[in-house]
Protein 1
Amino acid sequence: DILVDGQLCDCDVVVNCQVGDPVPLQVKLTNWSKHSVGPFALTVMPYQDYQNGVHNYDLQDAITFVGSNTFYIDSVKPTKDSVYFGALLFLYTGDFYLNIKFHEDNCSRELPLSWLCLPSVHIRATEPV
């Protein structure tokens, strides 16, 4: 589950926020398998989609993280969950997306390096009223 500013996100939701206000981000990973999973890393990468096949990930002047954009997860037991909190600060107006990936952090496994990608989250940053 992904919550941005307290709002549950899916691929059809656009979350509106104001430039200059910290926007809380919460990612909850639930392990529905019969075995523990991990270790791996959760990475949040903001980008802009120019609607022509180009994604701009070079946004250090437009978005900053309050804290880290990468969280390390040691292990999640069966039927348990792990929740990670962060915040984003938008410095300019625009439509932004969050690419959220779980990366395998254990060389002994045969999973690809980036094995789980959640649907992109759409955030629209607007001027304060």
Protein 2
Amino acid sequence: CREAYNLVRDDATEVNWVTFKYNGSTIVPGDQGVDYETFKRKCTDDVRLFGFVRFTTGDAMSKRVKFALITWIGEDVSGLQRAKTGTDKTLVKEVVQNFAKEFVISDHKELDEDYIKNELKKAGGANYDAQTE
């Protein structure tokens, strides 16, 4: 899991996201990729997974890389598994330690890239978007 995490953090790789999924009751590295839309397709109604995703935010004056930890719990996941996901997230956070914002999502609309980028921008403090007046 730490290797997968480091791939996303490494500026020398193109990997922008990784998932951590369940193999029975064990959390293991899942998929990885470059395109956020591909990550979103991994978030189906019958799974729960953790995603570590790199986003580039900012404007022409200042580009910044921000990281998000996304806990996805599909609508068809049982109540017991939902409850266990919260406890398991503690284990994931032992590996995934640096992120700007954490999301717990079960609605596909909240996976929208612009929504997440906007939330990351808010969490980032100073905002130097070009002012128009």
Protein 3
Amino acid sequence: PELSEEPPAEMVKMTKSKTFQAYLPNCHRTYSCIHCRAHLANHDELISKAMLFWVFLQSFQGSQGRAYLFNSVVNVGCGPAEERVLLTGLHAVADIYCENCKTTLGWKYEHAFESSQKYKEGKFIIELAHMIKDNGWE
């Protein structure tokens, strides 16, 4: 019989640990997923706070609540882009979700069709309902 470097299947133990792709430094105020505590963003990446209401073009399902706009985020996955009419006009956006627990957190602005909204391109919206503040908040 030939020797194999791989152990028999019954001897392979598969485990899935809860490790995040990125950990933000403890010395900075951060935002984490309220559902699983994965780090999402450093407070320094916050652009502005806003009251947001979005309407999905196809389903007309709405969601209302406060949200923050960030330059960059971590531990977040991105779905496919689609055009949606938001309060500020037509945008191409992609839903974003926590890579750890898969909860939809908000969206990424892929393209703004109005020139006054171009500053949002490449930025991320995360609803406050899905975030918790960590590290050094008073």
Protein 4
Amino acid sequence: RWLFNQAVCTLYAFCGVLFGLCSLTSLTVLSTVCCLKVCYPAYGRCWDFSPCHAGVLLLCVWAYALVFATAPLAEWGSYGPEPYGTACCITWEASSREATLYILALFIFCYLLPCLLILVSYSLILWRVRVSRRAVRQH
């Protein structure tokens, strides 16, 4: 069972959600930047990837993750013990309409959309490499 009080459970779950969302969002941004650099070279020339741009992107990643991680703290969704009671996470069994909407928003904007962007980005990169390979063979 969970050995600590509700405040520690909430902190534990908040950190897990925040860092998990930061990880997936970082991978999404990285795949998108790679796609733009490889598939759209003109874009790469007008937007040099500098430490300043990296910092802005990281700030956006953390802000995006913070919005969804702090939502349960603002009573949109909730944190609580997992079904086995050994750890804490988002309360997946929605008890209200707001909790259901939070879970739906989390699924769409923090799982489905990032996964689709990663899939599209790497598919475009592979397609570009394939087209370039054919052009080199014909040349």
